[in-house]
Amino acid sequence: MTTNLVTKFLLSSCFRVVCVGLWLSTAQQPAEAQSPQAIEAAQYRLSLDSCQQLAAARNKQLMIGRQMVAKAGYEQQAARTNYLPKIQLVGGYMHTGDQMQLLSSSQRGALNNMGSSLAGGLTGRMQQIVAAHPELASLAQSLQGPLGQLQTQGNALGHKITDAFRTDTRNITAAAVLLTQPLYMGGKIRAFDRITRAQQSLAEEQLRGTEHSLRLEVEQAYWQVVSLRHKQRLATSYRDMLAHVDSDVVKMVAEGVATRSDELSVSVKLNEAEMTLAKVDDGLQLSRMLLCKLCGLPLDASVQLVDEQTDDLPVSAEDVRPDVASAWAWRPEMIQLGKAEDIYRDKVQIARSAFLPQLALLGGYMVSNPNVLNGFERKFDGTWAVGVTLKMPLWNWGEGRYKVRAAKAEAAVASLKKEDAKDLIRLELEQSALRVGEADRQYRLSLKHLEKADENLRTASLGHREGVITTSDLLAAHTAWLQAHSDKIDAQIDCKLSRAVFVKAQGTAP
Question: Which residue, 188, 197, 205, is CA-closest to 72?
Fold first, then answer.
């Protein structure tokens, strides 16, 4: 039975270190805390404040959180640019198989034969006149030369006209500089600006929550190392006492005042103490690795903690009083839920803006080749333009109304989550305050138990030397002494961690 008790309290400590799932996050930071560079120069002789500073500077989760805050800040700056005009450069080239024709084929044919048609018409009319008045035949004959010139010049003029109407649009190059200035977007731009601002605050609160959690993770890992180091010394003392008892029993067996069974019992206990001490050493090594991981140090770094060398850990006797209103105001979770509520409220405005009029100012300068500013010319030329655009939905079968209602439902869910979180935080705060009181009571009881265990061991050791106490009773006294000291160490650590949990539940930095 005594073997089970010894193994139980030591192995449970190791198990808590290896399997700890830490969500705690806060610790005290005095004004004279060391810098990470000074800590490295000290070869990792760390206090709790030094561990906190190392974690704040090197922990990967905090680095990720800081990058998320920076990302949210950039997104907020990008959202604010939506108030300003946007300028774009657009260009392109297009080749088509056929060019655009302003004249039909019949029109082009008529223009190309304009001189022939005109000369032919005049010749026919002259023939009619000569038939009616033969005396004009000589005059008509003299006009044949000018009619031939008219035909040639008319056809040439027709070809010039058709050539002037050629567009030559098979190769088109165009470019434009466009300016767009939103005038009214249904409130979407302002809502998006508020959303990104709330998202930036949300990222900052998430980082603050991560910092709080990391602080308590570091504090818990720190005190676990201290606890196991004290228990290591305790287990060593227990092993040394058993070794001394074993030596005494061997002498007593030689003198005939103790039995061989007593010697074997003590020897078995001594072997079990050696095995348990080895397991405690392994647990201590793992707990140091966990602390190094949280502080951003190499896992195999040689770390020595200041509180490892203290004989007795100081315990605060100050009572704690939960302040629910302060917790609701300062807990990162509550602030995050408040920001989420604001975001969903602005999303309602964004959903509504899609079905409101949207007005924008447009302006720009466009060049093209060919251009139509002076007919169709094969050269670059351009002009400017300015105007406004209006987009106004007329009928969408109630789509906008349904989307707005859906956004309002999301906002209502966010509000309900915030109210539910208030109840959970109040419950957590009350539980943590009760846990502090329970830890204080356990510590006071452990002191009384320790005093009795020390006296019991002193009496048992004296009685065993006088031969009035059996070896089994002496071993039981040793086990009780070991358990009492272990309970005291656990109570001291529990007092520190329970107060740290309360500080985190209260929502304020220590």
Answer: 197
Tally Cβ neighbours within 10 Å of residue 272: 17
pLDDT of amino acid 137: 73
**Strand, helix or coil at 101?**
strand
For residue 141, give both structure tokens. 């004959």
Closest C-alpha among 394, 424, 20, 477 to residue 227: 20
Does the predicted model carry a pTM greater than 0.85?
no
**Tokens read off for 422:** 């208030």
d(CA 222, CA 47): 9
Q: 490, exposed or middle or buried, with CB in 10 Å at 0-12, 13-18, 19+?
A: buried
* Residue 257 pLDDT: 66
H/E element holding 143? none
Task: Supply the pLDDT for residue 473.
Answer: 83
Helix, strand, or coil here: 316? Answer: coil
Q: What is the pLDDT of residues 397-406, one digit of tens each?
A: 888 889 899 9
Q: Which of 16-30, 145-159, 362-376 has the highest mean pLDDT?
A: 362-376
> In this structure, what token pair is assigned to residue 390?
């209006």
Largest CA distance in the chain: 181
d(CA 296, CA 276): 30
Report the Cα 476 to chain-centroid distance in Å: 55
Q: Are 235 and 277 in contact (CB under 8 A)?
A: yes
- 8 A C-beta contact, residue 324 and residue 499: no
**pLDDT for the residue numbered 308:** 83
pLDDT-derived band of residue 43, with 50, 70 and 90 as boundaries? low
What is residue 71's three-state secondary structure?
Answer: helix
- Rounded to whole angstroms, the Cα distance separating 1 from 272 reads 13
Residue 145 clears pLDDT 80, i.e. is over it: no
Check whether 50 has a pLDDT greater than 80.
Answer: yes
Q: What is the pLDDT of residues 175-187, one digit of tens each?
A: 999 999 999 998 8
Which tokens hold the place of 439? Answer: 């830890």
pLDDT for the residue 510: 42
Specify the pLDDT at position 508: 67
CA distance linking residue 213 with residue 205, whole number of Å: 12
Q: Position 81: which residue type?
A: T
Distance CA 127, CA 132 (A): 9
Q: What is the mean pLDDT of residues 92-110?
A: 81
Q: How far apart are CA 351 and CA 349, in angstroms?
A: 5
| 3 state DSSP class of 75 | helix
Residues 6 or more apart whose Cβ sits within 8 Å of residue 70: none
What is the distance between the alpha carbons of residues 372 and 383, in angstroms, rounded to a whole number?
A: 10
Within 13 Å of residue 477, how many CA atoms lie on the same side as its CB? Answer: 21
Tell me the two tokens of residue 401: 């109304």
Q: What whole-number distance in Å separates Cα of residue 376 and Cα of residue 181?
A: 32
Edge to edge, what strands does the sheet with 86-95 contain?
86-95, 171-184, 358-369, 381-391
What is the rounded distance in angstroms from the CA atom of residue 179 to the CA atom of residue 187?
Answer: 21
Are 220 and 20 in contact, with CB atoms under 8 Å apart? yes
